[in-house]
C-alpha cells in the first residue's frame, strides 16, 4: 500500500519536473515539427493503438511502443518523442484500469519515462548522434542509434526496479519474467522501429502505414502469446494445487494449502473458506493480505453476504466493481472491496461449502480466474471430504467407543513420541502419569447393572476432561481404569492434581438412570478411586516402565492400603 505522503510527493515532483523537461527538450534539443503535424498525429495514433495491447507482468504493464518511439525520436527529436510517449502511457494506464485510488501512477510513470527519454537522448549525443546528419547512415550514426536504443532499455529496467524497491517496497528480481519479455520484444521491435524511421525518411507518410500496421499486429500477437502462456501457467499451477490438496489428510492443512496457493496465484486482498455446518456457513479459513488479522465473525446465514447468497442459490458470483453488488448489504463485507468472485464447493450433488475471494481493485477478476476457481473448488471439495473421512477413521481408531476418551493405544504412542522428543533434544523436563482405578467397580455392576456402570464411566470421563482441561491428556486404560498424562508436571504438582481428582470423585455422587433397581427413579451412587503416580525420568527410563510403575503404585500403594487414596512410585521405593 502506497502512503498518501508518497502520492502527494509524486504529484509535486511531476508539477516541477515534467514542465521543466518539456521546456528544456523544446528549447535546447533538436525539434522538427514544421508541416509534419499530421504525420506526428499518425505516429501518436499508432503508438496509442499499440499501447492498447499491453502485457501486465507483476503488476507492471509492458507495452511495445519502443520501436515507434525510436522512429519518432530520430525524425522529430526529443520533445515530440516525450509528448507521444506520454500519450501512450496515459493510454496504457487507462487500459489497465488505473482508477482514482491509484491515480498517482500517471505522474509517476510520466516522470519515469521522461527521464528515460532524456537519458537516452544524452547517450545518443555523447556517441556522436546528430539528427541533421543521421540520413548519411554512417557507422558512427548507427552506433549512436544502437546506444540510444540500449540505453532506453536499460534505463527503463533500472527505473522500474528502483520504483518497485523504493516506492512499493517489493522484492526485486533482476532477471524476472518482465525482463525476459522486454528482451524478447525489444529484439523484435527495435530493428523494425529503425526500419520504420528509414522507410518514413524515404517515402514519407506512407511508410507509417506500411510498418505502423505491422507494429499493431506484432503487439497483438505478443499479447496473445503471453495470454496463452499465462493460461498454461494457470493450468499447470492449478494441477499442482490439486495434487497438494489430495495429499493432505487433515482439514486444517487442506484449508491452509488452498488459501496460501490461491493468494499467490490470483490478485486477492481477502479470501474466505466456509463449510456448511447444520443451518449455517462456518468460516474455516480467512486471509487478509495487508493486515493479517482474524475475521470479526465466525459464520454466515443463508443469503447473507456473497457466500450466503451462493449457498442459497447454488449460483456463482462474479462482480467487477462495487456498484455491481451494491444491493448485497452486509457489515461482514470489507468496505474497500471492489471485485468479488464467490463459488460453491461441491461434492457429488451437494454444496458442502463456499469459497469467496475479494480484491480492492476494480475488474481484478476475469473469466479466466472464474474458470480456474471452478477447477480449484472441485479439488477442494474432494480434498475436504477425503480429510473428513480420514479424520473420522483416525478418531475412531484412537478413541474409546464408550467414553470418547483416547484409547490405550493412542496413549502408548503419545508417550513414546514424547519421550523420544525429550531424549533427542537432551531435555531435562519431567512429566507424570496418573493411573486411576474405580474402587469396587464389580459391586457397582452387580448391584446397579452394567448399563449403570457405563453411565458412571462416562460421567467420570467428563469430570476428568473438565478438571484437567488443557493441562494434560486423558485416556481410558481399559475396564474401569483411566490414564492421565501430565506434561511439565513433577512429582509434587502431579500428586496435588491426583489428590484433587480423588476428592472430586469421592465427594460428588454420580446419578444413574439405567439401573436394575425396580420401581425407582434416578439413583445417586457414591464412587471412590485409587490413583498411582509415576514420573519420567525420575522413576523410569521408558514409557512402558512409566505405565507399569504407575500401575504398581496404584495397586500396592493405594489399593492394598485401603483404597480411596493416592500413592506415588516414589513411596514404594522408600518403603
Q: Quick one: overall form?
A: elongated
Low-confidence parts lasting 5 or more residues at pLDDT below 50?
A: none
**How many helical elements?**
17
Indicate the structural class: alpha+beta
The percentage helix is 55-70%
The radius of gyration computed from the alpha-carbon positions, rounded to a whole number of angstroms, is 37 Å
Record field, number of beta strands? 16
Largest sheet: 6 strands, antiparallel
**What number is the mean pLDDT?**
87
Question: Can you give a write-up of this model?
Answer:
With 575 residues, the protein is α+β, with helices and mostly antiparallel strands. It has 17 helices and 16 strands. It has helices at residues 4-28, 37-51, 66-76, 78-95, 105-126, 139-167, 177-203, 205-246, 251-265, 305-313, 367-398, 408-424, 441-448, 450-468, 491-507, 543-559, 569-574, and strands at 55-57, 60-62, 270-277, 280-288, 299-300, 317-319, 339-347, 350-359, 406-407, 431-438, 473-478, 481-486, 510-512, 523-525, 529-536, 566-568. Strand 11 and strand 12 form a beta hairpin. Helix 4 packs antiparallel against helix 5 (105-126). The longest helix has 42 residues, at 205-246. The two termini are 71 Å apart. The model has no long low-confidence stretch (mean pLDDT 87).
